[in-house]
Amino acid sequence: MSGPSSTSHLYRLGIVLVAFFVAAVLVGWWAVPSSWNFDVDHWYRKDALIDNAQKPMVYGGNESCKDCHEPAMKKLAKFKHRALSCESCHGPVADHVRGNKKFAAAKVDKSRWQCENCHQEQINRPKDFPQFSKTGDIGKFVKKHNLLEKKTLCLECHNAHDPTN
Amino acid sequence: MELPGDALVNFIFPNNAKVWWSVMIVLYPYLTGLMAGAFVVSALSHVFKIKEFKPIANFALIAAFCFGLFAATPLLVHLGQPQRAYEIYVTPHLTSAMSIFGYFYSGYLVLLMIEIWLIYRPYFTRMANQTKGFMGFIWYLLTLGQLEYNPASAKVDQKIIAVLAGIGIPWASVLHGYVGFVFGSVKAVAWWATALQPFIFLSSAIVSGMAVLFLMYTFIRWRQRQAYDFAMVRKYMAFLWGIFILDYALEVIELAFVVYERGYHWSLIEPLLKGPLFDSYAIMQMGILSVTPLLILGYVVLSNISGRMMIHMANFGSLILLLQVLFMRFNVVVGGQLISKSERGFVDFEWEILAKEGILTAIVLFVAPFVTYYIISRFIPIFDDPAAGKEGS
Description:
The structure holds two protein chains of two kinds.
Chain A: H1 8-31, E1 36-37, E2 44-45, H2 46-53, H3 63-76, H4 87-90, E3 97-98, E4 101-102, H5 112-119
Antiparallel strand pairs in A: 1-2, 3-4
Chain B: H1 23-46, H2 54-71, H3 73-79, H4 87-90, H5 97-130, H6 133-142, H7 151-184, H8 197-223, H9 230-261, H10 264-274, H11 278-302, H12 307-338, H13 359-379
Helix pairs in contact in B: 1-2, 1-3, 1-7, 1-8, 1-12, 1-13, 2-5, 2-13, 5-6, 5-7, 7-8, 8-9, 8-12, 9-11, 9-12, 11-12
């Protein structure tokens, strides 16, 4: 009997490679989520939207305050800070209301940290925006602030909702 | 108000506080480079017929394979999610450079494996015929069930090996040039964004791969008390020296461009190079670690030095080059991220030792290819001809 042909080992190698390729295609097909959106400009798993929508709400936005606090919200409309989110100072609605019922008081953070979040001096903020340096000259914008101690709380003089009055 | 951990609030400058691509991303192009560089040595023999390199061609190929096996592990450690790591190979698309890399890298590894398989097939066949039991079965699997090796098939194999090595050169170049591309194409990072980046990565890859291969060679020869091939060493050093000159020139040209253009990028890079990167870039990478090997290897190549002294100098030069490329990888990967994304000020880089992406992990991953090489070398002949001792069928 004559020996194997000079290329028979290569056919065997070819079979192994094809087997790997087929396995890769099958595994790839299995690995792609069934709800995948194949439009290349909008690649995402469609079920991800549902998954996210089902997450419990934490922040409700200012709309969620209206149901119970309508009068206060109306008053707020004339104030300087009317555009801010209530929850950024009063905490998330999920810590305050559950199932349309108040179960805990909204906690207000009255520290300077809260004010400095927006009003600490930073290079990127508009020049005419009131800013206060944390360490140096706190009265750079309003001279009489220099008379105060550095620990003084902003809310001792200012109304948080309408600080310019 | 309670904030989680080290959360950043509002607008903070610099607006990024951590170097996210750290030691693991330094190690990844380093290991890939070692693979590409080692492969070039085998290709110099197989394709360009440099006869001095014939005795180390198989050694270079096996070493390249060992580095290749671990080249992507730093990425895996960096990203986490090992159970999803295979997905990059089975869900192809052409919209992401990172995804395309999966094909270049795995295709290259397959090419290496086929080339090694063809070279070692006579040995596998012989072992499968001689060995019984479990090991016999493993050898049998490695022959793919073809237990005969005849001269006609050897001829075919030699042709295919030459073709694969030929394809391998552009492939290795593209693979490593591509690593440079990933960095060079990030236009937001001033220190990376240059079209020269792929060429710098490629040439430094060849330098580091050749250097590590030489250190391995002398170490193995010394341990096994075998003679060094001095003619090979001299030729090898000439190649290493030449490619390093090219590599260093590219690095200098890149810097010279940015300096001379005095553009916006230089306004960001100048304080980086004079500040946080001064020691590791100016003093080490471009200074000591480059000038020393240039002089030492130049002396080895141009003088009549020979014997033990030549091996010592070549080893020292190779070690320094290995460090030079490691410093280069660090200076590129971490250095680029030190410029804060807001372009106002610098980010601090903190060395971690025991963390997931710390130095210990890096050492383990760096040592792994050498351990793998040691294990492989227990089973197959590296420096001897695999076809030697062939029994007629």
